[in-house]
Amino acid sequence: MARQSVDLVIHNAGQLCTLPAHDGGPQRGRALGDLGLIAGGAVAVHEGRIVAVGPGADVRAAYRGATEIDAQGRLVTPGLVDPHTHLIWAGDRADEFERRVAGATYQEIMAAGGGINRTVRATRQASLDALVRAGRARLDVMLAHGTTTVEAKTGYGLETETELRMLEALACLDAQHAVEVVPTFLGAHVVPPEYAGRADAYVDLVTGAMIPAVQAWRARAWPDTLFCDVFCEVGAFDLAQTRRILEAAAEAGMALKVHADEFENLGGVALGVELGAVSVDHIVETSEAEIAAVGRSGTVAVALPPTPFGLAQPKYTPARKFLEAGAALAIATDCNPGTAWCENMQLVMALATRYLGLTQGQALAASTVNAAFAVGRGDRVGSLEAGKQADLLVWAVDDYRQLGYRFGVNLVAQVVKRGRVVWDRAAEAGGGTT
Predict the structure, then answer these.
(1) Which CATH number fits domain 80-374: 3.20.20.80, 3.50.50.60, 1.10.1040.10, 3.20.20.140?
(2) Residue 434: is its pLDDT beyond 70?
(3) Could you tell me the pTM of the whole model?
């Protein structure tokens, strides 16, 4: 029988990790880390989608690629998905990091006018072009380290005009860059200085003006899922304020996320589960009862190990407890200018194996299939399964156990997005582009 012609065949993978979805959803509890490993595997791709995955002899007997990539016995996995970032901002806060190293706390710096509000001042002054340029530079680094899909929040505008400009920047980047961008409206990041002492009045602005304006922007410029997030934390928004904002966003047709329990437990996780949030993120100080509730729910728990690492704090997300409760766990960079300027999901996997107690296989699953479900894209990306988008990595190593074990270097050899090679180590080393 004649072989079917397709656009791309990747073959001779020493280890092909498919990271399968489980019953159409994320990998839950103790099942996290199902690699779907195929020794000597191959993948056939046509028109940006995977048409076949399996043993190399079977795939190559059935398909002939217009382009063929010999993986040379190396590891092949899905592209990494980063499900929690603050990608767009202007300026930096390197001097604040110096103060933290000298002993100042994050909360003390915020109280002195620094922290998020300092980035807000710089971002409000930045043009759309400047925000796009800054975001593109960060996406370039993410792509080179294997991230092919990224969630990205607003939240450094805290006024309608700048929040919309940040959304527009994210839409531009999604259209222009190889990395797929999933936008989140985070108008409720903190209370801006002009509303100091009047948090409820700012919540009125978010629910009464910002969310309708974002809804109108989405109708005009964004046909896909749009998330709304709230920072439910002491010094940001209390539980009642968080509920008001999330309920208004849900009524406007937005999907929900919650920043919760980074420093203190206010009940934000329980609220997120109650309202059907797609994910609850940070989850460091989450109670046993709320961990159990996440385990019974469809909400994904997203741990952000670069954040306590960046703050030199000893407490991390109790990931093992979430898994014991049967929860779906993902991990992310929390890339932001204040606590975790990290564009590298490989480093996140290394931190997760050391501070969250995950195995290398669990960290990989939490960075791919589960992370995809944490941004509402689990039906499209995050695993190598027929019908899904052809987002793949060829690594410069031959064993998945090298991931997390090695850190401080880039282990990616090639990045494929929608069936096209979009980053290549050899081409970069030679000064070429792909």
Answers:
(1) 3.20.20.140
(2) no
(3) 0.97
